[in-house]
């Protein structure tokens, strides 16, 4: 099956043949490693095809005349310590897609060092109908730029919206507000904050909501009560101790994710600082393992099942000709044992 359409990363055999001045059958045989092609010609054809963005359609025979009914789920592959909370979305997303008669196929994509046209290659080689892109692929990441350019039906969780791209987001501002209000209700007034990279959308939103809660109580959150981490447990540990040493009157700590909160708790424990007797700690994301820290971590949890069902509904809406739009769901505060009342 040859394809002549271009402009969306879809380059066909005939286009390659025209560029090289050879027959389409020669190109096909060279690309498919059929014997009878001179090695020099084979190499030239393969290099030209790669330069033109050609992607072999491995599922073409099965897909002629019918839909693949396959949705690609694109998961980030991190080279650094990161939350694995998105794994909790695998099962509910698959179940939700099943309800629409669709199957899911997973692709692990490097978060750093993304290969150009990787999304197009996956879509074309598997005949995917659409894509669901997991956190933390934001609008600035090449895979989302490619999705917007290709205009493939796509749903993401990072607030990226386009003509054929919808988004489901957890209301991080409301989550930050809920954590701040809880700490205030328990009597805390001097509260440290461990942020992630401050330019990341979720970090901006979580901290903004937290500050809004303090503003409601006529409290201005001072800059010396903020340390930036990178979402890793190690950075949370270092930031927590820096805040503790620079703010001896601090009674609580709110962290922009659970890994940093767990790192903070470990650092406090190593120094004989008891949680929550000496300092209260709140995390964010609701990773399942936070129930098993010592003591169990109070955190803000994303409604994973609701986000998954809405993502599946939105990708089906796009497949039926709908335009991209945004939906928001409200996270919930999970109260455990890392907050003590401060009198």
Explain what the structure shows:
The chain has 343 residues and is of the alpha/beta class. The protein is 39% helix and 17% strand. It has 3 domains: 13-54, 434 Repressor (Amino-terminal Domain) (Orthogonal Bundle), CATH 1.10.260.40; 67-170 and 304-329, Rossmann fold (3-Layer(aba) Sandwich); 172-302, Response regulator (Rossmann fold), CATH 3.40.50.2300. The protein has helices at 13-20, 24-31, 39-52, 60-63, 90-98, 118-126, 142-150, 172-185, 201-216, 233-246, 258-270, 304-319, and strands spanning 70-77, 103-110, 130-133, 154-156, 165-170, 191-195, 226-228, 252-255, 280-285, 298-301, 326-329, 332-334.
Helix content: 25-40%
Cross-sheet strand order for the largest sheet: 2-1-3-4-5-11
Number of helices: 12
CATH superfamily of the largest domain: Response regulator
Question: Which descriptors would you attach to this protein?
Answer:
single chain, 343 residues, alpha/beta, 434 Repressor (Amino-terminal Domain), Rossmann fold, 6-stranded mixed sheet, elongated
In short:
One of its GO terms (molecular function) is DNA-binding transcription factor activity. This is LacI family transcriptional regulator. With 343 residues, the chain is of the alpha/beta class.
SSE blueprint:
Elements: H1 13-20, H2 24-31, H3 39-52, H4 60-63, E1 70-77, H5 90-98, E2 103-110, H6 118-126, E3 130-133, H7 142-150, E4 154-156, E5 165-170, H8 172-185, E6 191-195, H9 201-216, E7 226-228, H10 233-246, E8 252-255, H11 258-270, E9 280-285, E10 298-301, H12 304-319, E11 326-329, E12 332-334
Parallel strand pairs: 1-2, 1-3, 3-4, 4-5, 5-11, 6-7, 6-8, 8-9, 9-10
Antiparallel strand pairs: 10-12
Helix pairs in contact: 1-2, 1-3, 2-3, 5-12, 8-9, 10-11
């Amino acid at each position: 099956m040859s394809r002549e359409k271009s402009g969306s990363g879809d380059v066909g055999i005939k286009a390659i043949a025209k560029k090289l001045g050879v027959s389409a059958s020669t190109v096909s045989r060279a690309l498919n490693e059929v014997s009878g092609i001179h090695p020099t010609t084979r190499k030239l054809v393969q290099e030209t095809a790669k330069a033109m963005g050609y992607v072999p359609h491995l599922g073409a025979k099965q897909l002629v005349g019918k839909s693949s009914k396959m949705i690609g789920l694109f998961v980030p592959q991190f080279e650094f310590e990161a939350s694995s909370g998105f794994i909790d979305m695998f099962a509910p997303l698959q179940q939700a897609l099943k309800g629409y008669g669709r199957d899911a196929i997973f692709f692990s994509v490097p978060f750093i060092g993304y290969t150009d046209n990787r999304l197009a290659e996956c879509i074309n080689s598997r005949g995917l109908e659409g894509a669901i892109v997991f956190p933390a692929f934001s609008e600035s990441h090449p895979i989302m730029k490619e999705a917007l350019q290709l205009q493939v039906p796509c749903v993401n969780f990072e607030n990226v919206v386009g003509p054929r791209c919808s988004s489901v987001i957890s209301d991080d501002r409301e989550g930050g507000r809920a954590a701040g209000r809880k700490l205030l209700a328990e009597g805390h007034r001097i509260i440290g904050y461990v942020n992630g990279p401050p330019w990341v959308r979720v970090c901006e939103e979580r901290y903004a909501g937290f500050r809004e809660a303090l503003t409601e109580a006529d409290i201005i959150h001072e800059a010396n009560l903020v340390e930036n981490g990178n979402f890793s447990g190690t950075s949370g540990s270092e930031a927590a101790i820096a805040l503790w040493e620079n703010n001896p009157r601090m009674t609580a700590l709110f962290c922009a994710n659970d890994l940093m909160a767990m790192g903070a708790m470990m650092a406090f424990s190593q120094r004989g600082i008891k949680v929550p007797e000496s300092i209260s700690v709140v995390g964010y994301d609701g990773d399942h393992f936070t129930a098993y820290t010592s003591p169990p971590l109070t955190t803000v949890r994303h409604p994973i099942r609701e986000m998954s069902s809405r993502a599946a509904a939105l990708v089906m809406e796009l497949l039926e000709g709908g335009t991209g739009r945004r939906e928001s769901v409200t996270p919930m505060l999970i109260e455990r044992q890392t907050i003590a009342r401060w009198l």
